Amino acid sequence: MKKILLLVSILFSLTAAADESAIKLQQGAGLDAVTRNCSTCHSLDYIPMNSVFQERKGWEATVNKMIKVMGAPIKPEDVPPIVDYLTAHYGK
Ligand code: HEC
After folding, report:
1. Given ligand 1 and candidates 32, 35, 36, 42, which is best to mutate, with the most ligand atoms within 8 Å of its CB?
2. How far apart are CA 40 and CA 30, in angstroms?
3. What is the Cα–Cα distance from 88 to 10, expressed in whole angstroms?
4. Measured between alpha carbons, how far is 21 from 16 in angstroms, rounded to an integer?
5. d(CA 76, CA 26)
6. For residues 23 and 40, what is the distance between their CA atoms, to the nearest angstrom?
7. pLDDT digits (tens, 9 = 90+) for 12-43
8. Fewest C-beta atoms under 10 Å: which of 34, 52, 63, 78?
9. How confident is the model at residue 56 (pLDDT cuts 50, 70, 90)?
10. 31 vs 11, 46, 50, CA distance in Å?
11. Cβ neighbours of residue 90 under 8 Å, at least 6 residues apart?
């Protein structure tokens, strides 16, 4: 019984650690579209890492590149909320 408890607490602390290291983007309109569409291939920390030099045009180009070059399956109606969100929160 003690062993089981120990195992459970180890597993629990591992999950807690994973949650803490998960990247947290700023809250705002469009965040769900971003989380849904932009975290399947790489981690969301690509967004803050690239925010220093992107403005609206840059984010539009990035999102289009993800779709056209990387093959991201993003619905056309999700693109405007994604670009708006990125520009508002991670634009320069
Ligand atoms: C189909 C897979 C896929 C999806 C979905 C995807 N990306 Fe990417 N993304 C990539 C690949 C591949 C790279 C380049 C390789 C690397 O650096 O890992 C990349 C690189 C990036 C970069 C680094 C700069 C650059 O232009 O290369 C940013 C910023 C980025 N993605 C943002 C996004 C955003 C925002 C979304 C959601 C709209 C998104 N990605 C969705 C595959 C994807």
Report:
1. 42
2. 17
3. 40
4. 9
5. 23
6. 14
7. 554 544 444 566 899 999 999 999 999 999 99
8. 52
9. very high
10. 29, 15, 17
11. 26, 47, 48, 50, 51, 54, 59
Of 59, 70, 75, the one to substitute when testing ligand 1's pocket (max ligand atoms within 8 A of C-beta) is 70
Which residue has 């180009």 as its token pair? Answer: 61
Phi, psi of 66 (to 5 degrees): -60, -40
Nearest CA to ligand 1 atom 40: 38
Place of tokens 């991201």: 72
d(CA 5, ligand 1 centre) in Å: 41
Length of the chain: 92
In the numeric block, which tokens belong to residue 55?
A: 């403005």
Give residue 79 CA to ligand 1 midpoint distance, Å. 14
Q: Report the 10 Å Cβ neighbour count for 61.
A: 12
